[in-house]
Amino acid sequence: MKQIKNSILNHTKNLSPFTELEKSLILEAEKATANAYAPFSNFFVGAAILLQNGEIITGSNQENASYPNGLCAERVALNTYGNMRTEEKIVAMAITAKSKDFKIPEILSPCGACLQVMAEYVKRQNSDFRIIVFSEVGGYYYAEGVSTFLPFGFNLNRK
């Protein structure tokens, strides 16, 4: 039997379980939704990454008329981080979304592609990071590691 590390998904309706840095991170993810380009779905997603030194990197979803060519907010933020080639580790990521057309589901989970990219960064930095997701309906869900959302991610077990 495979043991899944950090597999508890926590829930809260308020910000009390979060540190001041995490509260700032959540606010930055919310602000990032304003930069989303979502004329097709009207689904505006913002993501923010907290680095070990307290720096925050944001991203927003960017749609395209050729649908598969769009990018999710999480990957925009992670690719920006990767391009920076910083030695600072990711310690947390917050994701939030809103829509003018529909209510966001109770739990807003990153898509499988984004989770796999997150798992790659966990592997690269040799440490996991907290994931915080927010929806107006469900409140805040958070986990201490990516594996809670993607327990069987693709892994080549390379050295």
Explain what this protein looks like in three dimensions:
The protein has 159 residues and is an alpha+beta fold. The protein is 25% helix and 24% strand. The protein is built from 3 helices and 6 strands, in the order βαββαβαββ.
CATH architecture call: 3-Layer(aba) Sandwich
Ends apart, CA distance between termini: 23 Å
The tally of helices reads 3
For the largest sheet, list the strands in their spatial order.
Answer: 1-6-5-4-2-3
The total beta strand count reads 6
What CATH calls the topology is Cytidine Deaminase, domain 2
Uncertain ranges: none
CATH superfamily caption = Cytidine Deaminase, domain 2
Beta-strand residue percentage: 15-25%
Number of domains: 1
Order of helices and strands: EHEEHEHEE
Q: What percent of the residues sit in helical stretches (DSSP H or I)?
A: 10-25%
What general form does the structure show? globular
Structural classification: alpha+beta
C-alpha-based Rg, rounded: 15 Å
| CATH C-level | Alpha Beta
Biggest pleated-sheet summary:
6 strands, mixed
What is the residue-averaged pLDDT?
92
Task: Map the helices and strands.
Elements: E1 10-12, H1 20-32, E2 43-51, E3 56-60, H2 73-84, E4 90-99, H3 112-125, E5 130-135, E6 139-143
Parallel strand pairs: 4-5
Antiparallel strand pairs: 1-6, 2-3, 2-4, 5-6
Features:
159 residues; alpha+beta; Cytidine Deaminase, domain 2; six-stranded mixed sheet
Brief summary of the model shown:
The protein has helices spanning 20-32, 73-84, 112-125; strands at residues 10-12, 43-51, 56-60, 90-99, 130-135, 139-143.
